[in-house]
Structures are given as C-alpha cells and as structure tokens.
Amino acid sequence: MAEAIQRQAEARNVGHLIRRVLIPTETEIRSAGGRRREIKRKLFPGYVFCEMDLTEELRQIIQQISGVTHFLGAGQGPAPLRDEEVTRILKTVGEEAAVPKAAWEAGQAVRITEGPFSEMSGKIVEVNPERETVKVQVTIFGRETPVEVGFTAIERL
C-alpha cells in the first residue's frame, strides 16, 4: 500500500508533497509445525499513516488506490495526528519493533509437541522471549510441575 501511494504520487508529479508513508509493524515469533518463524504484524491493521501536504489532487490520487476506502476524520477533511501521537507511534516502531515479540502469553492453554513431555497439555506460566522458551504447568503423576520448552515445541489447544 505504501509503495502504491508513493508510485502514484510520483507518476502524477506530486510525489514531492509526500514526505513519509508509514505502516507500523512489529516482528512476532511464531511456531508452526515445530519451526520458528518471524512474522510482521501490523500494529494498526487497515491504517496507513502519511506525512504530506494534502492537496485536492493528492487526495483524489490516494482515494483511487485499490484498498483505500477513505481518510479518517470527522467532517470534510482528514484529521491530522497530534505530535505526541506521532512520537509515540514512531517510538514503538523504532525501539520495540527491533526486538521480536513472542506470540505466547501466560495463561494460554498449549500442548507440548516435542521432547520427553510431548503430547502433554498445560498452561503457560512464564514466557522468556530472550531465550525463546516458555514454562508450561503440566500434571505429572498427579502433581502440577513446570517444564521449560522452546517456542517451537508447543502449539495452541
């Protein structure tokens, strides 16, 4: 979407009015089939942030792009974001996006798929994104026991 906006603006000689197009994303660690994957997840699905000098011509160009429905705002024109909001979004994208976020959370019900505890089910009690491991509370011989397994060794129930 961001590339389409830039391309269309350049093709119509109004590219100089657009300073930046941003689709805030974060990296998330997922596991499927025992393999680790890093995926990009949109922080604001469905939204594209543009820093630009909006003219009527540029507005029409953007609205004609496939997938764009309308500008966000009340009344006739789009509502600009406040400087604090832009700073917070850029800080989130810059700092936190560099560190992959775990797709797992404490309290989720999971099944262990690999290792000596495979096929056992339990709840996640702790997530360690740096080591890419989780502690899962499982029942062994009638006792609740925490076991540590990797992100790729579990799946959601």
Description:
The chain is α+β, with helices and mostly antiparallel strands and 157 residues long. It has 2 domains: 100 residues, Alpha-Beta Plaits; 53 residues, Roll (SH3 type barrels), CATH 2.30.30. It is built from 3 helices and 10 strands. A 5-stranded antiparallel β-sheet has the order 9-8-7-6-10, with no helix packed on it. Strands 3-2-5 form a 3-stranded mixed β-sheet, with no helix packed on it. Strands 1-4 form a two-stranded antiparallel ribbon. It is elongated and about 70 Å long. The model has no long low-confidence stretch (mean pLDDT 84).
Helix content: 10-25%
Residue fraction in strands: 35-45%
Largest sheet: 5 strands, antiparallel
| Main sheet: strand order | 9-8-7-6-10
Q: Which class of the largest domain in CATH terms?
A: Alpha Beta
**Topology, number of strands:** 10
Q: What's the CATH superfamily of the largest domain, by name? A: NusG, N-terminal domain
Helical segment count: 3
The dominant shape is: elongated
> Gap between N and C termini, in Å?
34 Å
Classification by helices and strands = alpha+beta
Mean pLDDT: 84
- State the domain count: 2
Radius of gyration: 22 Å
Q: What sequence of helices (H) and strands (E) makes up the elements?
A: HEEEEHHEEEEEE
What CATH calls the topology of the largest domain is Alpha-Beta Plaits
CATH architecture of the largest domain: 2-Layer Sandwich
Uncertain ranges: none
